[in-house]
Amino acid sequence: MGSVGAKEIPQLITPDGRRIDGRLPDELRQLRIVAGPLHRADGSAYVEWGLNKVMAAVYGPREVHPRHLQQNNKAIVQCKYNMAAFSVDERKRPGLDRRSQEISKVIAEAFESVIFVEEFPRTSIDVYIEVLQANAGTRCAGVVAASVALADAGIPMVDLLPSVAVGKVGGKICLDLKKEEDNFGEADLPMALVPQSGRLVLLQMEGHMTRDELSQSLDLGVKGCRSIYEVMRAALREKYSVEPSAATPAAAGVGQ
Ligand code: ADP
Question: Residue 43: is its pLDDT beyond 50?
Fold first, then answer.
């Protein structure tokens, strides 16, 4: 442990190149996805990713509320990302804040670009993302959960949308940052990718990195997204290969 003033900062990369939880820079946290755990939603998914626990529910295509948002030539995609008050160490103030509004907006825009919205004019596709436990990368876990939930709801899309954050931690480019790496690292770069075409539909960045590091991060993120994509597909296969009423939470995992 090093220290800055009164603040203890953990050693983010050990001398043998391992991270705070023993992962190598290109390793994902354990990822487990359950497709369709909620019976009242049109589609749903539950994701456990490291210490993140995220539930997504999808409704629609259905009538637009509020009505004035209705578009004559396509469906609108509305997203509500919410972090539960008990999802973080210090109780989070419940309700909408700027951060959740921003995350809801970028996620809705990402899905609007992969859903065949022209097929459902004058309707709304509503995506709810509830973060039950947070440990960095919750917007990515939210995209993964919502994507499986949309597929579970039978909403036609170009493809599933895997998502992961890459970052710079202790001078190293690392895949899938956990909380301490997000807090004390130099940069954080969440992304979501259409796997077949390689098109990025969500890309944000906090912190600093060089052009070379950015390009290295994008390559690593694309690789991570491709592994996550396989887990998403496996979760959907798991649900749809058994009787819907008998569907049991099935696990699929990558990384460590
Ligand atoms: P993401 O969860 O997508 O990485 P951020 O980078 O904004 O989004 O947040 C990183 C982590 O910081 C979150 O996953 C959560 O663990 C923590 N965090 C975010 N907002 C709060 C908050 N209001 N109170 C406490 N912890 C928070």
Answer: yes
